[in-house]
Amino acid sequence: MPNADPPAWVPAILLAAGASRRMGTPKALLPCPPSGEPLVRRTARVLREGGATAAYVVVRPGGEGDAIAGAVSGLDGVSVVVNPSPERGMLSSVQAGLRAAIAHGPPDWFLVSPCDLPRLEPGSVKAVLDMVRHSNARIVVPVYEGLRGHPTAFRGNLAAEALALVPETHGLNELLKRWAGSVAEAAVTVDGAVRDADTPEEWRDLTGAGHERRAIENDGE
What we know:
alpha/beta; 8-stranded mixed β-sheet; two-stranded antiparallel ribbon; 7 helices
């Protein structure tokens, strides 16, 4: 039978260690209209408001990572994790965040999300966690008009499997392939969970705001 009680420990792994090459400036630090709140801070806040019991923001080493860490400073339940080798790929950031979360106890479930979702809403996160409570699935993904998005929820007993993957040869999608028959879809009513911003054009389309480009010198996912 599905578990009617909410899971007790559901950390969210928020990925903010990418190089943002296509954007031309660190996506995580872009100001979200109308308040100007940095994108990474907004996404971390939304994950917490939607029901994540903690959020681990994974950043790259150095000045850009320090700036992103500063952008989420003071948020309740939000911690920063440095991925020492982001050039190994996005999975290496997932694993860095997951290790930090596990250090506080084995998760019942864990969420994984990129930070570049400027229209993600707490209700979409809540819909995923509601499905977690009412499904026997191992993985839950939000779906809007047939499109899958983020955050994705993984049952806690998949943590070891995620940590065993090799970032140079696999992504986290490998788990969705392995457990394709045990993936539940949580319908969401707004498109924020499925629309990310990788380019200046996508950012303007999603937020109505522009930004100044600058060179990105770091390598990474």
